[in-house]
Amino acid sequence: MNKSMKLAYNTAIVVAAAAAAMIIGAIVFAAVGADIGKAYTVILTEPLKDMMGITEIVVRAIPLSLIALGIAIAFRSGILNIGAEGQMLIGILASSATAIALPDMPKIIIVPLAVLAGAAGGALWGGLAGFLKARLGVNEILSTVMLNYIAAQFYTFLLRGPLMDPEELVTGSGTPQTVRIPRQAWLDRIIPGTRLHTGVFIALALAVLVFFLLWRTSVGFRMRAAGAEAKAARYAGIHVERYLILAMLLSGAFAGMAGAVEILGVHRRAIEGVSGGYGFTGIVVALFGGLHPAGIVPASLFFGLLLLGADMTQRLADVPANMVLVLQGAIIMAIVSARQFMNNPYVQDKVARTLLRWFGKPEPPAPPGSIEACPDPSDAPSPCLADDPEALAKLQAQAAVGSGEGTDTTEAQR
Amino acid sequence: MGHEPIRSLELRGITKRFPGILACDHIDLSIGEHSVRALVGENGAGKTTLMNILMGLYQPDEGQILINGEEIRFRSPNDAFDHGIGMVHQHFMLVQNMTVVENVALGMKSSHRPFRLDEAAVRKRILEVSEKHELPVNPDALVWQLSVGEQQRVELVKTLCLGARFLILDEPTSALTPQETDELIELLEKMSGELSIVFISHKLHEVKALSDTVSILRRGRIVFEGRTENHSPAELAALMTGHEVELPRVDSTVVDRSDARGLLSIRELRVRGDRGNLALDGVTLDIAAGEIVGLAGVSGNGQRELAEALNGLRKPESGSITLDGVEMAGSTARRIIDEGMGYIPEDRNTEGIVPSFSVRENLVLKDVGEKAWSSGGFLRLRQIAKNATDLRDRFDIRCPSTDTAAGSLSGGNIQKVILARELARGPKALVSVYPTRGLDMGAEEFIHKQLLARRSEGVAILLISEELEEIMNLSDRIAVIYKGKILRIVPGKSATKRSLGLLMAGVSDE
Ligand SMILES: Nc1ncnc2c1ncn2[C@@H]1O[C@H](COP(=O)(O)OP(=O)(O)O)[C@@H](O)[C@H]1O
Ligand SMILES: [Mg+2]
After folding, report:
1. In which band, very low, low, confident or very high, does the pLDDT at A71 lie, cut at 50, 70 and 90?
2. In chain B, N or C terminus with fewer CB closer than 10 Å?
């Protein structure tokens, strides 16, 4: 398969997944007795009606894209980072503590410093899971999920204890939050009257950076090799464990930065509930975006829209905002299973035949054996399946569908 | 079932096109009852595609299938099963983490009850079949625990359990050891009394041993059909590849082995296997520059561990390995690679290449960090691409473009990618493990020539293989490994198949 075909193919999968998710969502809407048409209209169009809505989409897309970029790095390196939520919280702590501790720094120093502190905090938390996997073989899914809990408790403890705003104790309201971050450390708002902040530039710059890192540098090459086939990477002299730790450090750093940017740009103090599930939604964004920065940026905007739209349906269509979680789950399932299904060469052949019949233009016969032995599904995993990190396959429940004779799934999984 | 048994099966004018390629080109083939038909051809000739069409996995673009003179149309493998046609695929279609019973039950619709599986019926059927055809299997074994040969038997049993009377075997021997191959051939010979068999292979001595008639497929066309007994393997090979095939032989008179220690020198090497057993127990071996030493042995006698220890993928327990005087035992793979070691690994699909990486990326897999392919940490994409086009031409790698995922190439071409990378690095020594396993004769010839060419350039080559023919053709000296020890080293010239065979079985006194 050549590049443009692959792109078209992957796009088709994503679009099909979105459509399937919409249908599943519609069923759930119907089950809760909501007006399906109205709910979708609100979710998909209401946020776009004014400047406020549009900027709010971007405000949500900023942390989502940062987290998704980090998750893509990990995925491409063969690790499933489910711990962005925790890494983000540690990033917030590190970043706000730095900003608060250094109130007299000039802006030009304190802003980068606070963002980097967030990155360092997230990297620490992510790197921990990477280290556990590389050195002790601890499954990263377990460790990252568990580290999420530890981070959440630690965050709550600090916000209600050592880092709590002393004012809150005096006035007695006791809201668990830190003091306000000094003004110099803020990320400026770009459009007055909205919350859109300069973090958007950070996110875009980092998206470009991630592309270069993964596809244009030798370090990225090795990370991807280690992720795609660790055995071959090891054979080729690549220090797989080292790159695994590096990938988790980077992945955590991105989540940490997402936290830092969110605090410095939106809330201006560490409060509870900042992460709002961004760490998990980021996984969906990363997958939806094809684990590629060029896909992740638009995907994060789309999910920004969904998140905002879901808030609005609560008010306007009386559908709980949590519905968006159902959509997210449905999208993941649809993407993963569509890939699995569509990668079967026999299915591909059938689809191609059907399309030909519909849009019938017989293909000119190729000279016999013109290119010998190229995509040979019987000799190798199909290229498109192979294109995704093995990690993707790990996500799937290994449901052995009783297709019996074909047992095609087995072949596809090889 | 419920269809009358197949007395004759005929394919007429079967044509199948894939984007940019004509996989089957008006193929006519007819197969009678109780006979073994060999279908041979190089990789990519269209054998698998043709059989997949017969199984209903693909629909032909043109042509018909006739059973007992009547045209039929299989829409899915289920239809083929109903007619008693069964296929054992080139790559096993078994669910690794299920038991044998469960695997067989997957296809046995008759055992599916609402909400449960009639496991007893499946088990009974398995035992029946395995007894009747002398195919011992343990119904409760988990598939991943079984050896390749045993998995093959499970595939056969599975197919027979579904009532197959007409059996298609797609390269059943390509993953088997020579011993397992012999067993399988013997078994199929017995079964051919009651079944019709289509046997796909490109190993001509297997074809000679087993089949009654042979059809040769080249680039999607049947180029020859005839009775097997009337034709020599050399004739068939020439028809298969379109030119005379003569596997090259080493001329072992020219080696200068004056320095006592070889270029690659192994001393008293001890290495543990995966199960903690001592897989190598004091191996000593010297390979001179410009020498090929063949390591013969039944697989599983320490070959894998030796190759891995030599390449830094497994830590030796004790002993020494020197390459050109540099001690390397226990070094990292990286350092050994940098010292000039080349390695063609046993598992070409997941170890020799990163399957999802493009051909061009795989060609620089070991050396991306080198100045030639990256500067300042950034990849030099143009150089990498140019390198790939050069190597593609030099090593005759057939791929639509160097941007194609290497994993989508055929086995022979994957091996050429690996060979190109390893040889282009200009290694001092080369460890080559089962380099032609599962490859067709054309590819085999090419690889043998390449190895001999490196030999004359002064590379020290360790050739690990189970194919005695290959070892005897190429080796200056042959070492026989048995249970982790080198039993004996004999000059290549004086080795005979018989003597090597005995040594490989552990019989060392004469
Ligand atoms: N699903 C497919 N899509 C495109 N090309 C294919 C597909 N299956 C097989 N081919 C091509 O058809 C030709 C014949 O392949 P195959 O039947 O697998 O050969 P063989 O089994 O003889 O090695 C090869 O060139 C192969 O690349
Ligand atoms: Mg084949």
Report:
1. very high
2. C
Residue A373 alpha carbon to ligand 1 centre in Å:
6
d(CA B174, CA A279): 47
A324-334: pLDDT as tens digits: 778 778 877 88
**C-alpha to C-alpha distance for A258 and A207, rounded to whole angstroms:** 13
- Cβ–Cβ gap A376/B345 under 8 Å: no
Pocket test for ligand 1, best of B15, B16, B17, B18 (most atoms within 8 A of CB): B18
Q: Is the pTM of this model over 0.80?
A: yes
- Mean pLDDT computed over B297-316: 92
| Architecture field, domain B247-340+426-510 | 3-Layer(aba) Sandwich (3.40)
Fold of A57-314: ABC transporter involved in vitamin B12 uptake, BtuC (1.10.3470)
Pick the CATH number of B8-241 from 3.40.50.12780, 3.40.109.10, 3.40.50.300, 1.10.10.60: 3.40.50.300
Q: Which run of H or of E encompasses B11?
A: strand B9-18
Give the number of the atom of ligand 1 that is nearest the alpha carbon of residue B171.
Answer: 21
Range with the lowest mean pLDDT among A190-199, A313-322, B457-466? A313-322
Tell me the domain boundaries of chain A: 1-32+320-364, 57-314, 368-414
Q: What is the pLDDT of residues B92-109, one digit of tens each?
A: 888 988 999 999 998 887
- Other Cβ atoms closer than 10 A to A41: 15
User: Of A376, A378, A385, which is best to mutate to test ligand 1, by the most ligand atoms within 8 angstroms of its C-beta?
Assistant: A376
Q: Is residue B23 lining ligand 1, measured as CB closer than 6 Å? A: yes
Asked if B163 has any chain A CB less than 8 Å from its own CB, the reply is no
Q: pLDDT tier at A407 (50, 70, 90 boundaries)? A: very low
Collect all residues of chain B within an 8 Å Cβ-Cβ radius of residue A239: 332, 334
> Residue A405: its chain B contacts at CB < 8 A?
76-78, 81, 107, 162
From CA A52, how far away is CA A411, in angstroms rounded?
50
Domain ranges in chain B are 8-241, 247-340+426-510, 353-425
How high does pLDDT run on average in chain A? Answer: 82
DSSP tag of A264: I
Measuring CA to CA, which residue among B412, B492, B423 is closest to residue B453? B423
Residues A225, A229, A232, A235: is their CA dihedral positive or negative?
Answer: positive
Whether residue A320 has its Cβ less than 6 Å from ligand 1:
no
pLDDT of residue A98: 94
A·B CB contacts under 8 A: 216
Query: B412: burial class by Cβ within 10 Å (0-12, 13-18, 19+)?
Result: buried
Q: Where is B71: in which H helix or E strand?
A: strand B70-72
Task: Supply the ipTM of this predicted assembly.
Answer: 0.83
C-alpha angle A250/A251/A254, rounded to 5°? Answer: 85
Q: Is the CB of B400 under 6 A from ligand 1?
A: no
Task: Say if residue B244's pLDDT is above 80.
Answer: no
B366: nearest CB among A236, A372, A381:
A236
Q: pLDDT per residue over B21-59, tens digit each?
A: 889 999 999 888 888 999 998 888 899 999 999 999 899
Question: pLDDT tens digit string along B50-79?
Answer: 999 999 989 999 999 999 888 998 888 888
- Chain B residues close to A233, C-beta within 8 Å: 354, 365
pLDDT band at residue B150, thresholds of 50, 70 and 90? confident
Cα-to-chain-centroid distance, residue B261: 34
Q: Is the pLDDT of residue A399 over 70?
A: no
Closest ligand 1 atom to residue B90 Cα is: 21
